[in-house]
Amino acid sequence: MNISITVTIFLKYLCFLFMPVIFITCSLSEYNLHNNAPTDPAIQEYFDRFETEASFFGLEFDVAGKNIYGIISDLDSNRIGNCSFSKNHPRRITIDREYWDGANDMEREYVIFHELGHCYLERIHDNSKSGSGMCRSIMQSGESDCYLIYNDKTRDYYLKELFNRL
Ligand SMILES: [Zn+2]
After folding, report:
1. If you measure from the C-alpha of residue 6 to the centroid of ligand 1, how many angstroms do you get, rounded to a whole number?
2. What is the CA(139)–ligand 1 centre distance, in A?
3. Could you say which of 3.30.450, 3.30.980, 3.30.2010, 3.30.1890 is the CATH number of the domain covering 4-124?
4. What is the chain's percent helix, strand, coil content, to nearest 5?
5. Which pLDDT belongs to residue 156?
6. Which residues of the chain have pLDDT under 50?
7. What pTM was estimated for this model as a whole?
8. What's the confidence (pLDDT) of residue 106?
């Protein structure tokens, strides 16, 4: 029996909200289909950036070394990103094609770094919030009522939090 976990990001209304979807399956067929699939070059750019940003904190990350690959594909309505992982199989990040095509650089970075938070760092969702209601973590799930704005002003904070360097 193999246990796999899928974590999904949904986009709702005008801000990011996240909901986790966890599937437990005894089937390996999905992983076999995608085994050794190459990472989309457009996503690879952000995998490289993830490693570079981590290096600024003295962390040596190797996304490919963890057998993680990323693809752009069609996800269900409102789903923008997804991380599927299990212990002994490739970890797959899927970004919704429609979202990707309409996203700017910061929005693309946000969803990929969030998914790498799951797939690479093995983090779970964190819905804690500040007194003003701001999400304390880039790993927020959307199941709380915190708000998250990811831009030039907040990016440093959220990267420190992502890499556990606050
Ligand atoms: Zn998530």
Report:
1. 9
2. 6
3. 3.30.2010
4. 30, 25, 45
5. 97
6. 1-2, 12-34
7. 0.81
8. 97
